[in-house]
Structure formats: structure tokens, C-alpha cells
Amino acid sequence: MPKSILAGIDLAASSDQIIAAAQEYAEAFSAKVYLVHVAEVGLIPGDAAIDLSLLSDPISGPDLPINVDRDDEAVRLRAEHRALQGLKTKLSDAGIGATALFIEGATVEKLLLEIDRLDIDLVIIGSHSPSFLRDFFSGSTMKEVVREARCPVLVLPPPSD
């Protein structure tokens, strides 16, 4: 029986579905829920992530590429943080012990670190594609988490339109 649940939240359409499943499992097993959103900082057009460690000056900090506006990036990160806090409040208002964790970095790496650090018993994540089995075999965050996590992973199909 899970006592600690990690809900991987990417703030896409599937987030409500993930929250509902996390609430259902938390109520059934009196479990605590950790809502984890990993923000990949320094996204450039096309959503290609860049490795900020390669661009950082240890004294002055990261030197974002010319096409990444620092103000836009800050606005995006604040909006994501507020949205995550709103989802936490939704669970807390339902009587679920919930903690929201907003983490910057590479999604799979950070999720796996939190699974271990928090001693998670169950992970709940969503799929984006209607053919989520194809995604599983072709490579995705979902595939990596399922393959590498040391606990059961519940993968929810994308919400129906």
C-alpha cells in the first residue's frame, strides 16, 4: 500500500486527471502526495532544452542564449509555480496531505532523484499522445520513468476531448 505518492505534473491538459488519480489513491491509502513539476530552464523556440551548465559563468551566473528573454523566462516560471501551488491547494482543501515541489532541471533526472529522496511508493504520470504505447516504445519521459523508477508507476492515458 502506497504511503507516499509522487504526481508528476507538467501543467498540461492531463494535470487535472493526474490530480484526481493522486487524490483517489491518497484517500484510499491515507497517503501523502508530492506534486512535482520540473521546469526546464532556458527553453528556446521549438521547446529544445539547452544545458545551462555549459553556458554558465560561475561569477555572473547563466548567460542565456540571445533568443531567450530573461524576463519572459521569469514570467513563465512564476506562472508555472502559481499553477502548481493551485493544484496543491486543491488537494489540501480535500483533506489530502500535499506538498508542491517546483524543481529546475532535466525532467527525468530530477523526477528519479525525487522518487529516491522522498522514498516514494507510487508514481503517477500522464501520457500526452493518444498512442501512448507508441510513445513508450519510441522514447519519452514516461518511458524513462517507468524503466528507471524503483517503485510502481501508474501511467494515465491522455484525457479524452
Topology:
Elements: E1 4-8, H1 15-29, E2 32-39, E3 56-57, E4 61-62, H2 70-93, E5 98-104, H3 107-117, E6 122-126, H4 132-138, H5 141-148, E7 153-156
Description:
The chain is an alpha/beta fold. It has a single domain (4-156), classed as Rossmann fold (3-Layer(aba) Sandwich). The protein has five helices and seven strands. The strands form two sheets. The protein has a five-stranded parallel sheet, with helices on both faces. The protein has a two-stranded antiparallel ribbon with strand order 3-4. A hairpin with a 3-residue loop joins strand 3 and strand 4. Helix 3 runs parallel beside helix 5. The longest helix is centred in the middle third of the chain and has 24 residues, at 70-93. The two termini are 32 Å apart. Mean pLDDT is 82; it is low at 44-61.
Key features of this structure:
alpha/beta; Rossmann fold; five-stranded parallel beta sheet; 5 helices; 40% helix
